[in-house]
Amino acid sequence: MFPPIFPVYIPALVPLHKYAPLIWMTGVVCLWLTRYTHQLGKRLGSAYYALSALIRPTGILLISMGWLALFAPNPGYPVPSGLSIGWLPRGNWTDILCWLAIAAFFAFGVWAVATLGLRRSFLFRHVDDGLITNGPYAIVRHPQFLSAIGVSFFVIRLFNPTDFPSVAFGAYYHSLDLNWALFTLSFWVLSILEERELMAHFGDEYEEYAHRVPRLFPN
């Protein structure tokens, strides 16, 4: 049986493993659909807020489900005997560094949610919401995206592909790395689309903020 993977191995997701990229990318599209708060909010009014409160949580759920499905391959894969795999301790000091990095990126994301607020993070944003530039938003313009990218990267590093010499596991791990690269690219594109909308609404205020604070990665 394949070992438990972060945050939990869900056998029901095994049939979705091959569709995992499509699932989490659909979640990213859901987030994209709700980014035009000021344009659609003015045009649709309260209907937009109701729609956003439905679509944004769905997007977050699909992204989470897609990544869980990536970590749920066929349990019939052969596992070499004597190996300590997955989240089981391997006595490797790099595992400790990975755990510390995961905790740091996760805490950074929690800080961003606390600064922005639960409603604006997971449900909807009002047309008259002001621009947040303090806390983690003074470090990067999209701290929640950076948190997701960092956590997913070190989660993959913990599940070390070098422990598995078989062809099946090699292909599996290349899939994880490629998914992470595509995941990062999708958030980069999403951040650009969101900033176009914010620039159109906040004007000079956002332009000054964008010149002062990097988009996604601290410099």
Structural description of this entry:
The chain has helices at about 20-35, 35-45, 45-70, 95-115, 120-125, 145-160, 165-200, 205-210. The longest helix is centred in the last third of the chain and has 36 residues, at about 165-200. The chain is built from 8 helices and no strands. The chain has about 220 residues and is an all-alpha fold. The radius of gyration is 19 Å and the shape is globular. The chain has one domain.
Q: Tell me roughly what share of residues is in helical segments.
A: 55-70%
The 3D shape can be described as globular
Main β-sheet: number of strands, strand sense, barrel status?
Answer: none
Calculate Rg over CA atoms.
19 Å
Distance between the termini: 43 Å
For the structure shown, list the relevant keywords:
8 helices; mainly alpha; 219 residues; disordered N terminus
